Amino acid sequence: MDAGTLVVVAVGLLALAVASGMLGLGVAFAAVPFLGFFLGDLVHEVQPLSLFLNGVTAIFAAVGFAKSGLVAWRPALLLTGVTAVGAPLGSWLAQGTGQAWLWGLYLVAVGYLAVRMFRGGGSAGEGPGRPRLGLALVLAVPISVLAGLLGVGPGFLLMPVLVLAGYEPKLAAGINAVAVTMPSFTALVPHLRTAEVDLGVAAVLVVVGAAGSFLGARLTSRFVSGPTLKRVFGVLIVVMTAVKVVTLVTA
């Protein structure tokens, strides 16, 4: 990757890291389609780099939320344990899955979640004061496997599940930031043998992503309301999905 392209990628990733940091997601769900414009191999280039970036950005987002007291540690640690086990299985499955199928699964998953987030939260009678941790833990199992398969880390799927399970959006973002850190790195393990990553490019993007995610978490903690946070999530994944659909159709 030449210097000019690297600058473009770094600026784009900074914007994505700020937005994903606001949601406690880690940047991979947005970085996968974005980096796909510049790197040709989804499984061996895009996914390993995105997973590493996801883990780093989630750490810095978690620090940002923790400084504001927006991390509920018990559900965060329980979800970390569940997702850290399931994510590597998905990554292992990705090694033998066609790229067209992986992109198709990605687009279906983010499209479904965008619809659910715009339609609103959990079931009747459930609200932010009565979160259902058990439901979130059960759903975290298939979520972590699917996220590892897609190479994005579980945050973009876990965040709306936490909201739908009754967690207030800011608290859900804080829990999510902690819960997705470990599975991002465990999901990376099956990729290590076959990864083709430029370490110089990766180093630049890690620094940019870390700074952006911390800034995003602090913005949410101080200035962004819960309903606004849900809309930000919905808009972000709709935009990223639309861009990737156009790219696939015109390729």
From TrEMBL:
Pfam families tied to this protein: TauE
Coiled-coil regions, chain positions: none
One cellular component (GO) term of this entry: plasma membrane
Subcellular location field: Cell membrane; Membrane
Topology of this chain in the membrane: Multi-pass membrane protein
InterPro entries attached to this UniProt entry: TM_pro_TauE-like, TSUP/Inactive_protease-like
Membrane-spanning parts: 46-65, 77-94, 100-115, 135-159, 171-192, 199-220, 232-250
Main location: membrane
Domain of life: Bacteria
Keywords of this entry: Cell membrane, Membrane, Transmembrane, Transmembrane helix
Assigned protein family: Belongs to the 4-toluene sulfonate uptake permease (TSUP) (TC 2.A.102) family.
This protein's name: Probable membrane transporter protein
Species this chain originates from: Actinotalea fermentans
